[in-house]
Design goal:
10 helices, alpha/beta, Spore Coat Polysaccharide Biosynthesis Protein SpsA, Chain A, 2 domains, 14 strands, two-stranded antiparallel sheet
């Protein structure tokens, strides 16, 4: 198991940059946003979305690719020279791509979306800009619809179940209500807050736990994620469900977020959590001890993150 990263690592992997050879005109009201497009599935999704984003008047659009195997990418970058394409030279996690993409952005607010969603220009208005600038949130999550135009649940509520985390998904929500994390990483990120909190942990390779790890850490720091009805995203294809199975990623999430406790103003991981970790994991005892020691060192080094612990977060969720 790799060591837990303690700081934002911008040079974790090698990549090349294509495009970004022309500046584009900016539509008033959209100059505060950069757009970061994550790519998967059919190629035509990417090209259609990028064309629409260009027509909407964003001043900065970055497309992050999953690999260098897309042979028409050079041609696409020539068709759309205003867009910056970031292409990794090897296999990387979604969180790593977002880390590099957000760091490369020039604007304070970054809209992160997948290429297989549709964004309607009417959502991108002055009211949304006012909300983003007025809210002190690490991320503003959009409302989502399926390809059949059915509402998709986006409100994630943390609960405690036998001293462990349970997440209740709710369909309905009010404007500005909190959610634990944005579904599939998508939302409007506050770039400064994101980088200050360290970005996504590249050692957590499973997407659900990688997403949850960052935003749970943000909540423990006193930050919030809210949902807005002002930004609507519609999936073009079937929605892939979250894979929440227990594995090495979930165990690392446990050590970093659930195990730490604050006692008498100091944060640490009590020894009792070692045996919980060992029983939950598939590791042998000595491996579990080594992981536990590493997590203890990480918590001690990053104690400023913990303005509350897991138990306090659950207790105060509805009052924050």
């Amino acid at each position: 198991m790799n060591s837990i990263p303690s700081i934002f690592s911008k040079n974790r992997f090698e990549y090349v940059i294509l495009g970004n050879t022309e500046k584009k005109s900016v539509t008033e009201g959209k100059s505060i946003f950069s757009v970061l497009v994550l790519n998967r599935g059919s190629r035509h999704y990417r090209e259609n979305l990028l064309k629409n984003l260009l027509s909407y008047g964003f001043n900065e659009i970055i497309s992050v690719e999953t690999s260098m195997d897309d042979y028409d990418l050079l041609e696409v970058s020539k068709k759309m020279p205003q867009i910056k394409f970031i292409v990794p030279k090897g296999n990387v996690t979604c969180g790593e791509l977002i880390n590099v993409g957000i760091e490369a952005c020039e604007n304070e607010f970054v809209l992160v979306v997948w290429n297989d969603v549709a964004i309607f220009e009417k959502s991108l208005n002055s009211k949304l800009a006012e909300l983003v600038m007025g809210e002190n949130a690490v991320c503003i999550a959009p409302s989502l619809k399926t390809s059949r135009m059915q509402n998709f649940p986006v409100k994630m509520v943390p609960e405690m179940n036998r001293h462990d985390l349970a997440i209740r998904t709710e369909m309905g929500f009010l404007e500005g209500e909190r959610t634990l994390y944005p579904f599939e990483f998508m939302g409007i990120y506050n770039r400064t807050k994101f980088l200050t909190l360290g970005g996504f942990d590249y050692t957590i390779t499973q997407p659900f736990w990688q997403n949850l790890d960052f935003f749970f850490r943000a909540n423990l720091h006193g930050e919030k994620v809210i949902i807005t009805t002002l930004l609507h995203l519609v999936y073009s294809d079937e929605i892939m469900g979250e894979v929440r199975n227990q594995n090495a990623s979930s165990m690392r999430f446990f050590l970093k977020n659930i195990a730490p406790q604050i006692k008498n103003g100091k944060v640490g991981i009590p020894l009792s959590q070692l045996f919980r970790y060992w029983r939950k994991s598939t590791y042998g005892f000595f491996d579990a001890v080594n992981h536990f020691k590493e997590a203890r060192r990480w918590v001690e080094k990053n104690d400023a993150i913990f303005r509350m612990d897991f138990e306090r977060l659950i207790e105060t969720w509805n009052s924050q």
